[in-house]
Amino acid sequence: MRYGIDVCTLGEFAEPRRVVEVARAAEAAGWEALFVWDHLAFAWGVPSADPWVVLAAVAQATDRLLLGTAVTPLPRRRPAVVASAVATLDRLSNGRVVLGVGIGGVAVEYAAFGEDAGERSRAERLDEGLSVVAGLLSGDRVTHAGVHYTVDGVVLAPPPVQRPRVPIWVGGHSRAALRRAARYDGWIAAGDDESGAMTMSPEAVRESVGQLSRHRGGDGGAFAVALVGASRGPDDSVFAAYEEAGVT
After folding, report:
1. Rounded distance, CA 34 to CA 230, Å?
2. What per-residue confidence (pLDDT) applies to 174?
3. 73 forms bridges with which residues in the sheet?
4. Residue 87 · residue 156 · CB < 8 Å
5. Most buried one in 33, 92, 106, 143, CB count within 10 A?
6. Is the peptide bond before 82 cis (omega within 30 degrees of 0)?
């Protein structure tokens, strides 16, 4: 397994400089990745930071850390703008970016700005948006005529450093989320609660990994399984149990 830090960029960590300090310390200590949250938490009274600005600062302050969002609620963002931001960050970091996406679980972050917070609508926009973002990040010409988005023969330039495109990891625990993740490059699971106690057992992870494998069929390509959680330290036996269950 590889190990990273997931920073909740709310409250005191809405200050970008604090996240940069954490990133520098994490890289010096040997951590391999840094992920940040993506919320408009100020809509419900909590300070929050823009993930792409924060990650750009982290990219300039580090050399090795894999950088990404865990996760970006794609339905409340314009896919073309997300693709441009991700490609720019990938070039800035010399190919160290992962795009984590999800349906978005805080309805007020949609409703406060007059956007449809309905789960079905968000799921439709997520699927359509993923198709647009993945196409643009590939560097190919994209033409899309959907219910929610239209793209009229556009090529993203400059493209990301990573080829064939920046990896996309999909978050969520539902059957629909697992099917969605299987179409892309990885799955992100939320495995702990606010107190740091693990809520997703290795057995539950193993079951979901089995579903992902079935959905992927004969695709033997690299696929990431990322678990957000906590441990008591480097000797915690929890690591071996989750690695055996399929966490990468």
Report:
1. 14
2. 96
3. 102
4. yes
5. 33
6. no
- In this structure, are residues 124 and 114 in contact, taking their beta carbons and an 8 Å threshold? no
Q: Which residues contact 220 (CB under 8 A, 6 or more apart)?
A: none
Instruction: Yes or no: say if 56 and 214 are a contact pair by the CB < 8 Å rule.
Output: no
The first and second tokens of residue 141, run together, are 């010409």
CA distance 224 to 244: 14
The reported pLDDT for the residue numbered 102 is 98
User: What is the reported pTM?
Assistant: 0.96
Provide the token pair at 205.
């992870």
CA proximity to 185, closest of 55, 81, 98, 71:
98
Spatial distance between the Cα atoms of 67 and 180, rounded to a whole number of angstroms: 22
Look up residue 153 and give its two tokens: 């023969």
Mean pLDDT of the 20-27 span: 98
Beta-strand pair 186-190/168-171: parallel
Q: DSSP secondary-structure letter at 68?
A: E
Instruction: Give the pLDDT of residue 220.
Output: 73
The total of other beta-carbon atoms located within 10 Å of residue 49's CB is 25
CA distance 119 to 182: 20
Give me the pLDDT at residue 196, please: 87
Q: What is the pLDDT of residues 138-175, one digit of tens each?
A: 999 999 999 999 999 999 999 999 999 999 999 999 99
| 80-116 CB burial, b ≥16 within 10 A, e <16 | bebbbbbbbbbbbbeebbbbbbbbbebeebbeeeebb
Encoding tokens for residue 201? 């057992």
* % of residues, the chain, pLDDT over 90: 92
Question: How do residues 116-126 score in pLDDT, each as one tens digit?
Answer: 999 999 999 99
